[in-house]
Specification:
Elements: H1 22-57, E1 61-68, E2 71-78, H2 83-90, E3 109-112, E4 115-118, E5 131-133, H3 146-153, H4 163-176, H5 182-188, H6 199-211
Parallel strand pairs: 1-5
Antiparallel strand pairs: 1-2, 3-4, 3-5
Helix pairs in contact: 3-6, 4-6
Length: 213
């Protein structure tokens, strides 16, 4: 009786001990495919992050020329830059204070073409050709502006944080003719807050300057 096995039942040939089996082939293919997929998922955010970085490094900018305290200045700024940040961060004029940064406290008040504005809400790129006056430019040489002197005379400040904005707003209030009474001054100065509560003395300082004393 023959003991030879049919070809289909024959054991793997000893000459090819490393030949892959069906199970090994499927397992290897699954691992390689999974690694490739994982690599793609990891790489995608990196590419996205690179694009965002490039975009962040090149914000839209514009060139603007304006006169600040009598000096012509030409600068290139990010289109989102406020006048307050231009004054403080680029021009070194730190008299205008960043209080609420939302136009509610008046600490950042400056004059633009003679009119008082909240510089934190004013875009620098919109001021082409404008004339800006800050607290640093209010005095004439070494002579204080009359309202600056009146603030000293009336002791109209305590911590001093709001004082530059109060003085600029008060000067504009006088130029606008809103000094007929203490009530009118309070009304037209109401956009400037003083956390120390020096309102009575501030009004007195504005009245003193308006009278020319």
């Amino acid at each position: 009786m023959s003991t030879e096995l049919p070809d289909s039942a024959a054991p793997p040939s000893a000459e090819h001990p490393s030949a892959p089996t069906r199970r090994t082939f499927i397992a290897t293919t699954t691992v390689i495919g999974g690694a490739a997929l994982a690599g793609g998922l990891v790489a995608a955010p990196v590419a996205l992050g690179t694009e965002e970085t490039v975009a962040a490094e090149a914000p839209p900018g514009s060139r603007v020329s304006l006169t600040v305290n009598g000096v012509r200045r030409t600068v290139t700024v990010d289109n989102r830059t406020s006048l307050l940040d231009l004054l403080r961060e680029r021009l070194g004029l730190t008299g205008a204070k960043k209080g609420c940064n939302a136009g509610a406290c008046g600490a950042c008040t400056v004059l633009v073409d003679g009119r008082r504005v909240n510089s934190c809400l004013t875009l620098a790129v919109r001021l082409e050709g404008a004339e800006v006056t800050t607290i640093e430019g209010l005095e004439k040489g070494e002579r204080l502006h009359p309202l600056q002197q009146a603030f000293i005379d009336q002791d109209a400040f305590q911590c001093g944080f709001c004082t530059p904005g109060q003085i600029l707003s008060g000067a504009a209030c006088i130029q606008e003719g809103h000094t007929g009474s203490s009530e009118e001054i309070r009304e037209w100065m109401s956009g400037n807050l003083c956390r120390c509560g020096c309102y009575v003395k501030i009004v007195r300082a504005v009245e003193q300057t308006a009278r020319g004393n």
